[in-house]
């Protein structure tokens, strides 16, 4: 893969740009306590993040990464509503940007790259998080996990982003921390970049064969340093 022909950079949010696990874990545990259940350590909840709100709270109810198929639907619905309410009040309380994220994004934008977010996070939480972390206005648009009928690893959000930005698949690259990002990119026949930190269920992201795999976010910028600035 050559990055010199890329003009559009599509970023995952949680686990790629933002370490949001502390606030997500707090909301999960508030929900569980509200339902009379035992909370979990933040480190445990970290391994459940990455597929969106419904799988996250379902894992909390199950007490495991593998969701209990026998969970009553009314319990799941009740828990999801409570989780979304608790999280809405603390979207950006303890969440922080990963090192060098803001500096790298601003440098890319200055070079003329077009930036967008494709996340499985519910759409209503995206802008409050960006505002809280000083990233408001950096991205052309954001697609959440409930913005479309399908979410990552389905390629629909990536196709939609291309259409919204009047870009070809070959113009774009998907950047994320989980297999959902890489699998969505592969399904769309789009190039991908993985970051080794974040939330990927303790799985080596390399097994999904992203075109590049970085340990630090600003390595994206270092790869682009010697390439031609987009017109």
Describe this entry's structure for a reader.
The chain has 2 domains: 3-19 and 95-224, HAD superfamily/HAD-like (Rossmann fold, 3-Layer(aba) Sandwich); 21-88, Orthogonal Bundle (DNA polymerase, domain 1), CATH 1.10.150. With 231 residues, it is of the alpha/beta class. The longest helix has 16 residues, at 73-88. The two termini are 20 Å apart. The chain has helices at 21-34, 42-46, 53-62, 73-88, 101-110, 126-132, 156-164, 179-188, 219-224; strands spanning 8-11, 18-19, 96-97, 114-118, 142-143, 172-176, 191-195, 212-214. The chain is built from 9 helices and 8 strands. α8 (179-188) links the parallel β6 and β7. The model is unreliable at 226-231 (pLDDT under 50). The strands form 2 sheets. Strands 5-4-1-6-7-8 form a 6-stranded parallel beta sheet, sandwiched between helices. The protein has a two-stranded antiparallel sheet with strand order 2-3. It catalyses: 2-phosphoglycolate + H2O = glycolate + phosphate. One of its GO terms (molecular function) is phosphoglycolate phosphatase activity. Mg(2+) binds at residues 12, 14, 177. Pathway: Organic acid metabolism; glycolate biosynthesis; glycolate from 2-phosphoglycolate: step 1/1. Belongs to the HAD-like hydrolase superfamily. CbbY/CbbZ/Gph/YieH family.
């Amino acid at each position: 893969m050559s990055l010199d022909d890329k003009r559009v950079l599509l970023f995952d949010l949680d686990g790629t740009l933002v370490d949001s696990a502390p606030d997500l874990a707090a909301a999960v545990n508030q929900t569980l306590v509200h339902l009379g259940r035992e909370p979990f350590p933040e480190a445990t909840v970290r391994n459940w993040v990455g597929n969106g709100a419904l799988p996250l709270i379902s894992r909390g109810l199950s007490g495991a990464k593998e969701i209990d198929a026998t969970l009553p639907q009314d319990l799941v619905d009740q828990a999801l509503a409570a989780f979304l309410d608790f999280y809405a009040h603390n979207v950006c309380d303890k969440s922080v940007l990963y090192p060098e994220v803001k500096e790298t994004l601003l440098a890319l934008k200055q070079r003329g790259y077009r930036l967008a977010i494709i996340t499985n996070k519910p759409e209503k939480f995206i802008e409050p998080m960006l505002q809280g972390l000083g990233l408001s206005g950096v991205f052309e648009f954001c697609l959440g996990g409930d913005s479309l009928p399908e979410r990552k690893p389905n390629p629909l959000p990536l196709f939609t982003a291309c259409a919204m930005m009047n870009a070809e698949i070959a113009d774009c690259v998907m950047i994320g921390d989980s297999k959902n990002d890489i699998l969505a990119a592969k399904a769309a026949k789009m190039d991908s970049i993985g970051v080794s930190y974040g939330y990927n269920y303790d799985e080596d992201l390399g097994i999904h064969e992203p075109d590049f795999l970085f340990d630090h976010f600003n390595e994206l910028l270092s790869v682009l340093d010697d390439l031609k600035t987009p017109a």
